[in-house]
From TrEMBL:
Lineage, uppermost ranks: Bacteria, Bacillati, Actinomycetota, Actinomycetes, Kitasatosporales
Roadblock/LAMTOR2 domain residues: 1-90
Alphabetized PANTHER family for the sequence: SERINE PROTEASE INHIBITOR RV3364C
Organism (species): Streptomyces oceani
Transmembrane segments: none
Protein name, as recorded: Dynein regulation protein LC7
Length: 125
């Protein structure tokens, strides 16, 4: 599933993350340790995007995408169902519109598999 997005020119890595920062899937180019660290960072970025939208537009606003530009590339985060997101890193030569479109198509195609339901509290006897 993630191999589709990694085939897009200039895409380097792809991750599926949960809202609470857990790695749910990764492209072959990402080690498990890196996936765990990047997932935590992405969850923080998602949270900041959500809070920025709430402060600027109101609490009913939904964050659809977060993009970070850095020396050498970009990081795109797209909501992928309740409690999940798709993260893609690219080089700085990216066609941002193409990557965004491919990410949305991937989410639309397999979105129901990209959800991470909220954790349920358990009581101990």
């Amino acid at each position: 599933m993630l191999s589709d997005i990694v085939r897009v020119p200039t895409v380097q890595h792809a991750l599926l993350i949960s809202r609470d920062g857990l790695s749910m899937g990764r492209s072959a180019s990402v080690t498990q340790d890196d996936a765990d660290r990047i997932s935590a960072v992405c969850a923080g970025l998602q949270s900041l995007g959500h809070e920025a939208a709430a402060q600027l537009v109101g609490t009913g606003s939904t964050t659809r995408q977060v993009m970070v530009e850095f020396d050498g590339g970009f990081l795109f985060l797209v909501a992928a169902g309740p409690g999940a997101a798709l993260a893609v890193s690219t080089s700085d030569q990216v066609d941002a519109g193409l990557v965004a479109r491919e990410m949305q198509q991937l989410v639309a195609r397999v979105g129901e598999h990209l959800t991470s339901p909220p954790r349920k509290e358990t009581t101990t006897p």
